[in-house]
Every structure is written in structure tokens, then in C-alpha cells.
């Protein structure tokens, strides 16, 4: 009976109906804009957007029933929310691409910042000098070190919390992980610095120290998201596996983890995202270098965020040269992240058991 | 918890020895990881406390601003929570809506791409968000929105005072923070919404529910704990966000309710970023002590969230 | 310059030698406190001079003030071109952090917007070899301009006396049409517009130097003294923006805004001419460079130390009084010959005409005057291996 009603009502609010409601909204938006903000196209759009859900609700309320009206209101609001969210994000990406493209050239991709006086003179003449290859390498190394520490650590902790743990230790770890999300990034940097000074003496600056600092920031994100995803794996799956006599660890490896893998990878990428743009802790622990350094155990490195930040705030003369490098480095960072992301996604698809969505 | 079922399953294990042995290693590894986190955190806390304590009990006359520690940290705590709440108030509803859009409204193939894009945006470094905020969003708001709010809505305390001409306000900072945390909340919410058991959804639809009713009955209860977790991760990020706030906010000393002027309470993380490099001696200790306070705030927020989320639905808790 | 004349002749000789051949014979050097150190000094300088430039190798590591980051790019380029096997790395972690890293032995030199404090100097005696401690070398002078955003002035340069500047930044003068501003700018049509004073939100040497100027030149209006952090110690109010780029952007964004910022970074914004000795001076690198000449060395620690108390109220109208003076802090004695060679070669380069030209080109700094260069070179020549 209710199915019939739905199909009947949906016929009543037809496509033409939607168009009519839309046009009416724009007209009202026009009027409101004229009354409040003076007539400008952007304000008309803004008001129309804000009024559209109300218009849809009211018209559906009149033509259909309350349940349908609410359903339509939610559908329209959710879609509009998406548009509203995409706007700033698109603007951001567009800004990075537009500003970054200026210096996204071969010199930038292959060069470093060990400049000569001739380079500086050329830069004053408006030429493109200086690169960020060393910073790309640095970011990849430091972030990899952090990920190699934090992801296994966080994943195993989450497994412990969900599959094994009980009692006070679980409570302690859970609340400590929560506290960890609140560590200001500079504090993580200082902690790692102090640790390595203790071991290796004053002035130590290595990629490893930076990786440790970042892993302190990364771990809680990995734990919390992985924990959440593991909890969502239905217990029926685990019990079915146990019933077949599969030991618990194998159940976790073969059943629980693959089921949750997409979520875990999303969480891990979020964790990488949390740290890949950090500046302050890296400056304290890794320092700055003009040239490529491939060894995380010895010597300083430059990372892209540190590079970006200092080229942006201390561009020197001409100001544009440094700031263009900063934007190009920001673009590079985004591209690196995009590549990592795509890899993660592909991996998730390969690892996910067949038959899952 | 699942203990009883798991243990009974173990008892009847067929693989016997090897299974047990593998299990012991695996259990040891995972427990070790948990303990290592505890140790690390204890190390950080110890370090924080050792470095921060001298900054708490210090003679105010020796410091910048000659405030006691409480006077110093008070406005920062206020600013931190205020900014984070503005961000959460803007981001959480939008993020949940977007997650629903991707998981239940958009066509499947489009949804995959959209999910990917949103995740990707979560990875944009916050420095970039900050620079974008000051270059694009702040001028936009300062020219179009703040003067209007200042003229027409100043009877609301939030919009009183003279509107900023450059847009470096609490509202701008809150909005940029919202953009920073949106992808995080969206990504996690979407993931849990997608995990809603098909059966629940279909049962609801079969009973004649509209799509929204189905979501309210099946999807949201199932995903509640995950959504709250996501929101808390977002809130944690907003509380601790450094560079985006440092670049955008025009800070002053004191408590300010208006969110459209140049006078704003700073946040703890941003204050550390701004003051740390040129500080020395006891001032450094005091800054680290404010970091300790941030620690406590985050802990409180998360404890609260845990309690709220505990009432939720979880597969493992079944 | 407050140099005792009897030292000046000797100085000039040493300097020319030092500049020409990285030291050379230091027999003419004025007697040091300890003869034994002096002997070593001669040996070292001789060795350094004997070694061809290309033989100098190793990595010199420094950390400190971010204000020097752009200048450092120029110095690194010039120095490494001269000594291809040597590398200079510099972490712009901030003055405080830089001094701390240096004092803990983590770096070989520090860049700092402030000279070592007394307690820090005591520590430096432990950090450095020997017992002479560290010295401050004022190697970087960066003029601070006062940019403003008043399109209606249409090209006329705003003139501001110290008391007016202090009044504006202390929030006592709040409108551009105020009498004080009109008095400084006779015949200029000033708009009836609220003033939005922009200050640095971060702690910075720029704020410290700017407020030191206000305190010295208009102490009765600016009662807050020399401060590093505006919001904690200053008058409050106004707009806070991080870093030089933030201040410049904030001034550019709002009509009626005025700020203070690194002169090389203000771009197209006009900068106010500042009242000095009865007339108004627009900033120029040369005019700002003279500021160290008219300043007094605080002294007291040892004769090589070049910590200065900047005189912000010069008598002559050819000096621009608002500038950031930033130091390199180095030990007088190091443990190893390698450290001495690197530090000496780099500091000599930075203090030379080429070095000062390099930072002027890469960061828009003001060159230190030849007289001060000469005196600093003497201090650098005294750096030796402990023994």
C-alpha cells in the first residue's frame, strides 16, 4: 500500500515541478538580495541556495505528505551541503595549482638550494633558479620513517584493543591514545629532539629524529581509526571462523583485517596527512640542508613543508622568487600525497576480499 | 565484550599447537604495541611536565606581560575552545551530510571518486589551508560579510565591535579550521556509513520507509560511534591546529566574544608557534606548560566523547 | 663611533690584512689580555692564510634568528663559491633557540636578534674552549620601514615624528585627521579615517628593535619600553599578523592601516619618513647602516665582544634610526682547528664588502660601514684554537 502511495506521490512532484520550484527560489533570492545586500549576482546565488531547501520542503508539503517532504528536504540539503563543501576545497586546490604552476619546472624538480652568486644574480633578473628535489626526497624519507613506526604500532595497538585486550590496560591505552591526539606538534618535536640529544649528543639532527617526532603525532590517528574499523567487522565473521577451528591470530589476519582494510588504509592515509605538512617539529629535529641527503641516520635534511614555510615567510629579494618556490613546493606536496593516496586505494582494492562493496 | 565467545572458540581449536603458538606471538606483539604507546606517552608526559613545571610556578614579574600562569593561560584556553567549537559547529553537520551524500545519495561510481577526492583533501597540509585562508577567504569575508554583520547584526554579542578590514578574525579562523577538519570527519563517517549492514537497510525500506527514514533507523544508529569518533578526531585536530590559526588570527591579550574584529583570544597551539622561536629561558617553560594544558583539554574532550560513543552500536561489541 | 683613536691606526692595518688574506700577520694587533692566547692566534691565522681557499672543507652549522634566513642564502652562495668544498647550513629556529643550541654545543655559531644576555655569556665560557667565552658580531642590519595604506595621499610621502608614531601604535592617536599627524604634514590633506595599527603577532626582533626605537625617541608617549611580544606587554588593540609577510599583507588589505616591517619586503606600499634631528628621513640602506656607527658598544665582557646598544636618536639627519641589528655569536676559542678555520673563514666573508653586498642583494640589508667592518674583522682575527 505504502509503495503505491510513494510511486503515486513521486509522480506528482515531477521534474517540471522541481524546475518550477527552482525558478521560484531564484526569483525570491533575487528579491531578498535586492532588499538586503544590493543586487549582485553572487548574493542572488547565495540566497537562492539558502532558500532552495525551504522551497522544496514547502512545495512538497503542499503537493505530497510530510514524510515525503522531509525526505526531499534531506536529499536537497545533503546535496547542497556537498556543493557548499566542494566550493572552498575547489578554491583551495585551484589556488595551489594556479600559484604553484609558475615555478613547477625542470629546475624546480631536479635542482636544490645550493645556489651560486650567479644564480642569485639571475634570480634578481627574474630567472627561475633553485629547486626542491632535496626537499622532496627529505619529505619522502622522513614521512616513510614515521609511517613505518606509526602504522604497525597503531594497527597492533588497535588489534589489541579490539581483539585481545581487557580490563584496565585497555582503558589506560584508550585514554592515553586520546591524550596523544592533543600533543601540540612542537612538543612532539622537542620530545624527539631531547630523546636523540640524550642518545647522540647535542645538536643531533637526523631524518630518523624527525620520523620519530612525526610518529608520535601519527600513532593516535592510526589507532583510533583502525580501532573504529575493526569494531565494525561483524562478530558473525569472527565466530564463523572460530567455528571452523581457525586460530584467533589467523582469523584476525585472514578475516578481520581484510574486511576492514579499506577503512584502515583510509585511516592510515589520514594519519600521513596529519603529519606530512608539519613544519615546527621537523625544523627542530631535522633542520635544513641545501642538498639532497639520502641517509636518515646521519645528517640534516630539508623537507617540503619546512621549505615551503621558509620560502614563504622569508623570501628575500625579489619576494616573488621565494614565494613562487613556496607555492610550487606546496603543489608538489599535494601531488605526492595524491600519488600515495592512489597507491593506497589500489592496494585496498587488491587486498579487499571479493564480494565486498 | 567478545571474550567468552572467543575463548570457547579457542578451546575447541583444531590446529592445536601451532595455532596457540602463533596466537601467543600475535597477542604478544599487539599487547607490546599497546604498552609501547603507553611508554612513549609517559615519556612525552614526563618531558612535558619536567619542562613545563618551572613555567607554572614562576614569579610573574620576570616574564613578558607579568601575568600569573592562570592569567596567562586563561584567554588561550578560551580561544582554543572557542575556535574549535566554531569549527566543529560548522564542519560536523556539513561533514555528516556530505558523508551521507557520498554513501547513500550519489551514484555508486561517482561516490567512489568523490570519496577519493575528499580523502585527498584531508591530506593537504594545514600551512596551505592557512595561506589560502589569508589570501582568498579572509578578503572575501572582510569585503562582503563582516561589514554587513557589523552594521546589521551588532546587537548579537558575537558580531559586535568594529569589523576587521583584513578579515583576520575568529570567524575566519574557525571557518578555515572547519575546512581543515571537514575531510577528516567526512572520511570516517562515510566509511562507517558504508559499513551499515545491507540487511538493516533493506529491512527498513521493505517496511515502506522513505530513504531518510531508512537512514535515521538503520544507518545513523549503526554509525553513531564512528561519526562521534570522527568528529572527535576533527576536534582534536582543531584544538591542536597550529599554522592555519597562526597565519590567520589577529591575536590580542584577553577574552573576546566578538568574532568579526581584530581583537581575538589566541589559541594555545598558535600562541606556542608564534612565541616559541624567539623565547628563551622561563618563557619557554611557560609555553610548554600551556602545551600541558592543551593536553588536559584534549583528554577531557576525548573522555567525554568516549562516554557518548560508548552507547553506540559496534560490531565487535555485538 | 666611539673608538679610541690610538687603536684606530692599528686596526686599519689589521683589517686590510684580514680582508685581503683572511688574517695574515697579526703582529700589529693590540695586546690581548693573555699573551699565550695571542701566540696561538698568530699561528692559527698564519695557517689559515697559508691554506688555499679550495682546501677548506667541512660543514659549518649554525642556527638562530629567522630574520637572517634570506641573508644567509646570499652568504651561503657567496661563501660556497669561494670555498667549493665547504658547506654552511643554517636552521632558522629563532634567536632564543639559536642561542640555546649554540650554548649546548649543538651548533658552531648562532644567529640572534639580541646579543648574549649576561647569564648566557657565563654559560658560553663553559661551552667554548678556553675561558674567554663567546662574542657578538653585528653582521646584519635590516632597516625597518613604516608602511601605510592611504591611497588618498596620492604619492605624497607621509611624515611622522617619533612622538606621533608612538601615539599611533599606543592607540592614543586613532584617526588620520588628528592634529599631531597634521602638524607633521603641513599642507597635506589627511583623510577622516580610523587608524588600524598593525603589529607582529609573533615574538620578533623586529618588534624589539621597533619598540626600542619608540622607547628611546618618544619615551614619554611610549611607556611600554622595549618589548618582544606585543600582545602580552604592549598597549593591546590594533591588528596582529605573523611574520613580516603577514604584516605587509594586513597593511595592504585595509585602507587606513599602518605597520612596521622589514623594509625590503614592503613591496609597493609607501613608507613614512621618520623624524630625526629636526627633519624627516626616508629609509635607505645607507642611512640605516650608519646606525651602528653612532651606537655604543656595551662592552665589559672582553674587548672583542661587539654587543651594541643602538642609539636611536642620532644627531644627524643622514641616519635612519629604525633598524634591526642581528648578531652572529661565535666562540673566541674552539676545540679543533677545523672549527676555527670554518668559523673564521665564514665570518670573515660575511663581514667583508662582498659578504655585505651578498646579503644586501638577497635580503635587502644595509651594509655595515667600513669603520665597523674593520673593527669586527679584528675580533674575528682573534678566534683561535684553545691551547
Cα end-to-end separation of chain A: 32 Å
SSE order of chain A, one letter for each helix or strand:
HHHHHHHHHHHHHHH
CATH first level of the largest domain in chain A:
Mainly Alpha
C-alpha termini separation of chain B = 8 Å
How much helical structure, as a percent, in the residues of chain A?
Answer: over 70%
List the helices and strands and how they pair.
The complex is a heterotrimer of chains A (357), B (318) and C (387).
Chain A: H1 2-12, H2 15-36, H3 41-63, H4 66-101, H5 106-110, H6 117-124, H7 133-164, H8 167-180, H9 185-200, H10 207-232, H11 235-243, H12 248-276, H13 280-285, H14 304-313, H15 319-351
Helix pairs in contact in A: 2-3, 3-4, 4-15, 7-10, 7-12, 7-14, 9-10, 10-12, 11-12, 12-15, 14-15
Chain B: H1 3-11, H2 16-56, H3 69-105, H4 108-122, H5 126-144, H6 146-152, H7 170-194, H8 198-206, H9 211-240, H10 243-248, E1 251-252, E2 264-265, H11 268-275, H12 282-310
Parallel strand pairs in B: 1-2
Chain C: H1 5-21, H2 35-50, E1 58-64, H3 69-82, E2 86-91, H4 95-103, E3 109-112, H5 118-127, E4 134-145, E5 159-160, H6 162-169, H7 179-184, E6 196-200, H8 205-217, H9 230-233, E7 239-241, H10 243-253, E8 257-258, E9 261-262, E10 273-276, E11 279-281, H11 285-289, E12 296-297, E13 308-309, E14 323-331, E15 333-334, H12 337-351, H13 353-363, H14 370-381, E16 384-385
Parallel strand pairs in C: 1-2, 1-3, 5-10, 6-7, 6-8, 15-16
Antiparallel strand pairs in C: 3-14, 4-9, 4-14, 10-11, 12-13
Helix pairs in contact in C: 1-14, 3-13, 6-8, 12-13, 12-14
Amino acid at each position: 500500500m505504502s509503495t503505491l502511495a510513494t510511486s503515486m506521490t513521486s509522480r506528482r512532484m515531477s521534474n517540471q515541478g522541481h524546475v518550477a520550484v527552482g525558478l521560484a527560489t531564484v526569483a525570491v533570492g533575487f528579491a531578498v538580495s535586492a532588499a538586503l545586500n544590493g543586487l549582485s549576482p553572487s548574493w542572488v546565488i547565495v540566497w537562492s541556495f539558502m532558500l532552495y531547501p525551504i522551497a522544496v520542503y514547502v512545495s512538497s508539503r503542499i503537493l505530497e505528505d510530510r514524510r515525503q517532504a522531509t525526505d526531499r528536504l534531506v536529499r536537497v540539503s545533503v546535496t547542497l551541503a556537498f556543493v557548499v563543501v566542494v566550493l572552498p576545497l575547489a578554491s583551495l586546490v585551484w589556488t595551489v595549482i594556479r600559484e604553484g604552476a609558475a615555478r613547477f619546472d625542470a629546475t624546480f624538480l631536479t635542482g636544490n638550494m645550493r645556489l651560486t652568486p650567479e644564480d642569485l644574480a639571475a634570480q634578481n633578473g627574474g630567472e627561475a633558479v633553485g629547486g626542491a628535489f632535496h626537499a622532496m626526497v627529505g619529505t619522502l624519507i622522513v614521512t616513510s620513517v614515521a609511517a613505518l613506526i606509526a602504522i604497525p604500532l597503531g594497527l597492533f595497538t588497535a588489534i589489541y584493543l579490539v581483539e585481545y585486550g581487557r580490563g584496565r590496560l585497555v582503558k589506560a591505552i584508550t585514554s592515553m591514545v586520546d591524550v596523544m591526539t592533543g600533543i601540540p606538534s612542537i612538543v612532539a618535536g622537542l620530545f624527539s629532539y631531547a630523546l636523540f640529544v640524550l642518545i647522540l649528543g647535542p645538536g643531533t639532527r637526523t631524518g630518523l629524529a624527525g620520523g620519530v617526532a612525526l610518529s608520535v603525532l601519527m600513532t593516535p590517528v592510526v589507532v583510533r581509526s583502525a580501532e573504529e574499523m575493526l569494531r565494525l567487522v561483524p562478530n558473525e565473521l569472527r565466530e564463523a571462523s572460530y567455528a571452523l577451528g581457525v586460530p584467533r591470530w589467523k582469523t584476525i589476519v585472514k578475516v578481520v583485517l581484510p574486511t576492514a582494510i579499506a577503512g584502515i588504509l583510509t585511516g592510515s592515509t589520514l594519519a600521513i596527512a596529519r603529519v606530512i605538512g608539519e613544519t615546527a617539529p621537523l625544523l627542530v629535529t631535522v633542520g635544513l640542508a641545501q642538498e639532497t641527503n639520502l641517509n636518515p641516520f646521519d645528517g640534516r635534511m630539508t623537507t617540503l613543508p619546512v621549505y615551503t614555510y621558509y620560502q614563504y615567510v622569508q623570501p628575500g629579494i625579489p619576494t616573488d622568487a621565494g614565494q613562487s618556490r613556496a607555492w610550487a613546493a606546496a603543489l608538489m606536496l599535494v601531488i605526492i600525497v595524491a600519488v600515495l593516496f592512489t597507491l593506497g586505494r589500489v592496494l585496498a582494492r587488491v587486498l579487499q576480499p571479493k564480494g565486498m562493496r | 565484550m567478545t571474550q567468552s565467545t572467543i575463548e570457547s572458540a579457542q578451546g575447541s581449536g583444531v590446529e592445536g599447537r601451532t595455532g596457540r603458538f602463533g596466537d601467543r606471538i600475535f597477542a604478544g606483539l599487539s599487547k607490546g604495541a599497546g604498552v609501547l604507546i603507553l611508554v612513549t606517552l609517559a615519556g612525552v608526559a614526563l618531558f612535558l611536565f619536567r619542562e613545563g613545571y618551572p613555567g607554572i610556578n614562576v614569579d610573574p614579574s620576570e616574564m613578558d606581560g607579568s601575568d600569573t600562569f592562570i592569567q596567562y593561560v586563561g584567554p588561550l584556553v578560551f580561544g582554543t575552545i572557542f575556535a574549535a567549537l566554531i569549527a566543529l559547529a560548522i564542519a560536523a553537520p556539513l561533514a555528516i551530510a556530505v558523508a551521507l551524500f557520498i554513501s547513500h545519495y550519489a551514484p555508486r561510481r561517482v561516490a567512489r571518486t568523490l570519496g577519493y577526492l575528499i580523502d585527498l583533501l584531508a591530506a593537504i597540509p594545514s600551512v596551505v589551508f592557512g595561506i589560502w585562508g589569508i589570501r582568498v577567504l579572509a578578503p572575501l569575508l572582510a569585503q562582503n560579510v563582516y561589514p554587513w554583520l557589523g552594521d546589521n547584526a551588532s546587537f548579537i554579542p558575537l558580531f559586535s565591535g568594529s569589523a576587521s578590514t583584513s578579515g583576520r578574525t575568529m570567524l575566519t579562523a574557525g571557518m578555515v579550521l572547519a575546512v581543515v577538519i571537514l575531510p577528516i570527519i567526512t572520511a570516517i563517517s562515510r566509511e562507517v556509513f558504508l559499513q551499515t549492514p545491507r540487511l538493516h537497510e533493506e529491512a527498513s525500506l521493505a517496511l515502506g520507509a522513505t530513504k531518510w527514514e531508512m537512514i535515521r533507523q538503520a544507518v545513523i544508529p549503526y554509525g553513531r560511534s564512528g561519526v562521534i569518533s570522527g568528529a572527535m578526531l576533527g576536534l582534536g585536530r582543531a584544538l591542536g591546529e597550529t599554522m592555519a590559526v597562526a597565519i590567520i588570527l589577529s591575536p590580542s591579550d584577553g577574552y573576546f566574544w566578538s568574532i568579526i574584529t581584530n581583537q581575538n583570544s589566541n589559541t594555545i597551539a598558535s600562541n606556542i608557534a608564534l612565541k616559541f622561536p624567539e623565547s628563551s629561558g622561563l618563557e619557554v617553560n611557560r609555553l610548554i606548560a600551556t602545551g600541558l594544558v592543551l593536553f588536559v583539554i584534549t583528554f577531557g574532550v576525548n573522555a567525554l566523547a568516549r562516554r557518548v560513543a560508548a552507547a553506540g552500536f559496534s560490531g565487535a561489541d555485538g | 663611533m666611539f673608538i679610541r683613536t690610538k687603536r684606530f691606526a692599528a686596526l686599519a692595518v689589521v683589517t686590510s690584512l684580514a680582508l685581503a688574506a683572511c688574517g695574515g700577520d697579526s703582529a700589529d694587533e693590540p695586546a690581548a689580555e693573555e699573551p699565550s692566547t695571542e701566540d696561538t692566534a698568530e699561528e692559527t691565522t698564519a695557517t689559515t692564510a697559508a691554506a688555499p681557499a679550495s682546501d677548506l672543507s667541512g660543514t659549518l652549522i649554525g642556527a638562530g634568528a629567522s630574520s637572517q634566513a634570506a641573508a644567509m642564502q646570499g652568504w651561503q652562495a657567496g661563501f660556497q663559491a669561494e670555498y667549493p668544498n665547504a658547506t654552511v647550513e643554517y636552521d632558522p629556529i629563532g634567536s632564543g633557540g639559536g642561542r640555546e643550541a649554540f650554548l649546548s654545543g649543538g651548533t658552531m655559531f648562532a644567529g640572534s636578534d639580541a646579543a648574549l644576555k649576561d647569564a648566557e655569556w657565563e654559560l658560553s665560557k663553559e661551552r667554548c674552549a678556553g675561558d674567554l667565552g663567546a662574542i657578538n658580531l653585528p653582521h646584519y642590519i635590516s632597516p625597518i620601514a613604516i608602511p601605510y595604506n592611504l591611497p588618498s595621499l596620492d604619492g605624497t610621502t607621509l611624515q611622522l615624528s617619533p612622538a606621533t608614531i608612538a601615539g599611533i601604535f599606543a592607540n592614543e592617536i586613532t584617526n588620520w585627521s588628528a592634529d599631531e599627524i597634521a602638524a607633521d604634514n603641513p599642507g597635506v590633506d589627511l583623510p577622516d579615517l580610523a587608524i588600524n595599527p598593525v603589529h607582529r603577532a609573533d615574538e620578533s626582533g623586529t618588534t624589539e628593535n621597533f619598540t626600542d626605537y619608540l622607547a628611546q625617541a618618544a619615551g614619554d608617549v611610549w611607556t611600554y619600553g622595549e618589548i618582544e611580544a606585543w600582545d602580552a606587554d604592549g598597549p593591546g588593540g590594533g591588528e596582529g599578523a605573523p611574520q613580516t609577510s603577514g604584516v605587509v599583507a594586513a597593511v595592504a588589505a585595509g585602507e587606513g592601516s599602518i605597520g612596521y616591517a622589514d623594509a625590503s619586503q614592503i613591496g609597493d606600499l609607501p613608507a613614512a619618513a621618520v623624524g630625526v634631528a629636526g627633519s624627516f628621513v626616508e629609509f635607505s640602506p645607507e642611512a640605516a647602516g650608519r646606525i651602528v656607527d653612532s651606537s655604543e658598544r656595551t662592552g665589559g665582557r672582553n674587548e672583542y665582544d661587539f654587543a651594541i646598544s643602538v642609539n636611536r636618536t642620532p644627531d644627524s639627519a643622514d641616519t635612519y634610526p629604525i633598524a634591526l641589528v642581528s648578531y652572529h655569536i661565535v666562540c673566541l676559542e674552539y676545540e679543533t682547528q677545523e672549527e676555527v678555520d670554518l668559523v673564521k673563514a665564514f665570518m670573515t666573508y660575511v663581514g667583508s664588502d662582498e659578504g655585505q653586498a651578498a646579503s644586501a642583494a638577497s635580503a635587502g640589508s644595509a651594509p655595515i660601514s667600513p669603520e665597523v667592518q674593520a673593527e669586527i674583522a679584528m675580533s674575528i682575527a682573534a678566534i683561535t684554537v684553545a691551547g
